[in-house]
Each structure stands twice: as C-alpha cells, then as structure tokens.
Write a structure and sequence with these properties.
Helices cover about 35% and strands about 15% of the residues. It has twelve helices and ten strands. The protein has a ten-stranded mixed beta sheet. β1, α2 and β2 form a beta-alpha-beta unit. The protein is globular. The relative contact order is 0.14.
Amino acid sequence: MSKKLGWRRFLALKLFQKLYREKVEKHTLRTLFWECTLRCNLACRHCGSDCRVEPSTPDMPLADFLKVLDEEVTPHVDPSEVLIIFSGGEVLVRRDLEEAGREVTRRGYPWGMVTNGLALDEARLKSLMKAGLRSISVSLDGFEDTHTFIRQNPLSFERALAAVRLIAEHNELAFDVVTCVTSQLVPRLDAFKEMLIANGVRHWRIFSIFPAGRAKDDPSLTLSDEEFRTVLDFIERTRREGEIGLSYACEGFLGPYEGRVRDQFYQCAAGVSIASVRVDGAISGCTSIRANLHQGNIYTDKFWDVWTNRFQPFRNRAWMHKDACGECSMWQFCLGGGMHLRDDDGKLMYCHYHKL
C-alpha cells in the first residue's frame, strides 16, 4: 500500500483534526485509570512498565484513591460518564479489589479492569461482577507456544483462555481480548482469529510492541516493517468480513490505514480525556506513559487543579515538532505520536507511520 493518503482520506483527516482540537480545548475527563498495584503474578518479556520502579513499591491504599474521587473528581463530573479502570501490575493480586469495586460503584462510577487472566476463576468473576464490574480486557497473545514464550509461565495460556471462555458467557459485560503481535503469530493470525471466534470472543484489539521496559533490549519482539504491514492488512480484511470486531490499538498514526483499521482516526487521548492516578500518587495520562512525564501528585497537589491547568505538554504538542517529527509532512495529523511512545526525555522512541 502506498503511503500517500489520497484526497478523500486527507479531507477526512482534516475534519477529524478540527474535532480533535475541540476535544483538546474542552478536555472533558472520560476515563480515569487507577494503577492500584505494581505487583504481578507474571514476568512478561514485553512488559512496558517503567523499569526504574522497584517491585517492592507498595500498593496504593484504597482510601487514598477514594479521597481523590470524593474531594477532587466527583464535584466536577457526572460519575456515570467517567469510566474508572483498575490497572497494574496485575489487579487480581489485590485482595480488596471487590471492596474497591463496591466503593466506586456506590459513588456512581462504572468500572472495569485489565487482567492477564491467570488468577481469574468463576468464583472470582462472580464476586467482581457482584461488586459492579462492567468491563474487562484479557491479554491473550497467540496460541500456547507464542503466548507462553511471551508470558513466561506454563499455565498462562490455559488460564487466560479459560478466563476468556468464562467471561464470554456473560453478555452483560463489555469484554475484549488484547493481543500483542510478535513475528511468531503473524503467519497464524487467521487461525488465531478463528480460535477466538470459536471461544465466543466478539471484540479484539491488536497492538505491536515498541522498545520500552523489558522489550527495550529484546529486538525479537519487534515486528519488521513487512510484518507490520501484514498485520494491518489482516485487520482491514477481518473488519470487512465482520465476524469479529477487530481494531488496531491507539498506538500511533497509520497514514493510509487510518479509517481502515480502527473505528476512528488516530488520536492520543492521554491528558485530553484520559487521566491516571499512579501507584505512587503521580497524576498522568494513561499508565503506559513513562513515569517521569507526570504532571503532579495526589499527595502534594489537587487532582482537579492538575487536570485543569497542568496538562499543557499533552494538549499542546508544539514541543514535539522537532527532529524527525519536525520534518514529517504528517505532523499536522499525528502531532508527534502517542505520549507513551516518548522516552524519559520526551524523545520519540518509535514511529508507526515510518514503518509503513
């Protein structure tokens, strides 16, 4: 596929650009991540967590997060319109997860979670749903050999697939499978798609690994340019077939593939409609962003003041318009890529568009 946009796609992107600017100006909070723990029951090869953080970092006390909701968030929002996502680490290692869910639900917020599925069984799922669980994403990275290679636990595939089957029985839950695609899976994507469909999966998100965290020193996890294009072509073809809702995650601007592999054009919503409270109290965009790009801390700052006034590096991307980005004709649409693609110094680590 040519990297040229074509005039129709160009005009569509210009329209979306205007809508995105309006969204930035309003910066209405729609999603709040709570990084409730850094503990995890796996040690995945591709984990993008900030490696400067020691595993001994304690979980954030639930009371501290609830105080932020009560004093800083709820007075300014309609709780029913803000999704709270519990993230980690692996959230299921917290024994008070149900209590957290009940407290968030009691305050009128819908909540969801992301899990590797290792510790999710029928009893735990029922208790979470009773506590108000509304949405759940399960990581499943291919067939058993591929998934196990990445997750480094011989039980990880069996448990994740069992979790997928279990959740698929509950139509009341918003649910998807999230897959990080590596070279091993690329030639088997069609077969893996059929397996997901056979196990009741209706929604599927794919992403590729970029060099951060543990993946930084493992080039075997990164797709070649040809493999990356193959993945995008597969997504486009699968979307046309209509048997399963598939999209490429919000990883970066995809040039001529925009409008073909996602439900909307690329945008980075971090600091625009998405915020996070990290395990140490840092206030940032999504939890995939490097830790030192935070804008404040709940233990020293007022969350709503930070959200309202301190997210300019996220909302005004002019500081990114330099180096390779300064010379790129797609800057007007990409705006420098996702904030999670920036290293500790703000330098771009990975450009999806230039892999096309």
